[in-house]
Amino acid sequence: MNFILFNVILLFAGFLAVLIYSVGLMASLAPMALFAKSENPPKAFMLPLMGIAGIYQVYFWGFWSAFCVAMTIRFTQKPEVTRDWLYWITGFMECTSLIGWLAYKEWQGSQSLAEVRGIERGTVLYSLIAIAAFLVFAFAPSLMLRPYGWALKPLGLERYIATKTTSGVEIDVKTRKSIEGFFTGYDYAVSANKLAHAMVSSKDTLADFEKVKSLFNKSKERLSECDITVLNNIYSRWGDIVYDKFIPAVELLLAGAQPKGDRNDLIRGDALMAELDTWLQKNWDNILLRLNEKYGYEIKK
User: Fold this and answer.
1) CA torsion, points 217, 222, 228, 232, in degrees to nearest 10?
2) What distance in Å separates the CA atoms of residue 118 and residue 107, rounded to the nearest whole number?
3) How would you class 196 by CB atoms within 10 Å of its CB: exposed for 0-12, middle for 13-18, buried for 19 or more?
4) What rounded mean pLDDT belongs to the chain?
5) Max alpha carbon distance in the chain (Å)?
6) Read out DSSP for the chain?
7) Which of 8-17, 83-92, 112-121 has the lowest mean pLDDT?
8) Which has more pLDDT, 11 or 78?
9) String of b and e for 259-277 (b: at least 16 CB within 10 Å)?
């Protein structure tokens, strides 16, 4: 159901994007129509107008890529979604297929070989821009906030991308990955625990069991991005707790959940999780306060 909804949203958004793109492009090209009948239009006017139209198209396709990435992240963060790769492939295809569809419509209306070649060059150029933007935003989602945050925030997508800084403090890549890795890994672990406890009354225990393992694996993957020194420098013992309690707890729970796993691993994993929760209950607010004071992070409880 999530995958169907994901495709429906991107398809509907694609129709709106075509409309917005067309209106914006017409508006940027409209002044050039004043010189359309002139055999030698003044370059002093034409070049800036062409530059504005080109910048608009580059900016728009960057935004479309950002939207597709943000929507993909939104859905892959849902606990019940386990095949992230399927959403990423679909999001990438939607990102580039819109350019192909517009190019096809232009080809239908072309009247000369020169026009066709011009359309082909434009299609290749803007496709490369969209592909590059998609890849950059997929690996560094927070980069899309500065150029497109004004549009993503009203759509409710900003909080799925990355926590936005408000103090203007620059954060290095290692620090950002450590902070976001912890909170995302923690969310996955909490979702896995909730689902595991709900399995008692589950109608499809096997499917839920696979989801629990998938969530714990995602948690472990994101926690591995945390740098112990970075977290300790931000807040005393934060990094130690992650590596001494959190990651071992996830690993034990995963090991104990295997078909021939040791039940004692589950017990030890639960015990470490309990110690982690106790520490976080005492320090959670102070961690959030420190992140806000030092980096301007606004993280919801």
Assistant:
1) -120
2) 10
3) buried
4) 82
5) 85
6) -HHHHHHHHHHHHHHHHHHHHHHHHHHHHGGGGGGTT-SS--HHHHHHHHHHHHHHHHHHHHHHHHHHHHHHHHHHTSTT---HHHHHHHHHHHHHHHHHHHHHHHHHH--SHHHHHHHHHHHHHHHHHHHHHHHHHHH-GGGGHHHHHHHHTTTT-HHHH-PPBSS-----HHHHHHHHHHHHHHHHHHHHHHHHHHGGG-S-HHHHHHHHHHHHHHHHHHHTT--HHHHHHHSTTHHHHIIIIIHHHHHHHHHHTSTT--HHHHHHHHHHHHHHHHHHHHHHHHHHHHHHHHH-B----
7) 112-121
8) 11
9) eeeeeebbebbeebbeebe
Which residues are 286's β-sheet partners? none
Per-residue model confidence as pLDDT tens digits over 177-229 = 899 899 999 999 989 888 887 776 777 778 888 888 999 999 999 999 999 99
What does the pLDDT read at residue 12?
A: 93
Main-chain dihedrals φ then ψ at residue 150, nearest 5 degrees: -60, -30
CA angle centred on 159, ends 198 and 240, rounded to 5°: 70
Q: Please report where in the chains the tokens 């492939």 appear, as a residue.
A: 89
Dist. CA 175–CA 227, nearest whole Å: 8
- Confidence at residue 16, expressed as pLDDT on a 0 to 100 scale: 92
Residue 115: its pLDDT value, please? 59
Contacts of 88 (CB under 8 A, 6+ apart): 72, 76, 138
- Tracing tokens 């994901």 back to the chain, one arrives at 6
Residue 297 backbone dihedrals phi, psi, to 5 degrees: -70, 140
Say if residue 16 is exposed, middle or buried (CB neighbours under 10 Å; 0-12, 13-18, 19+).
Answer: exposed
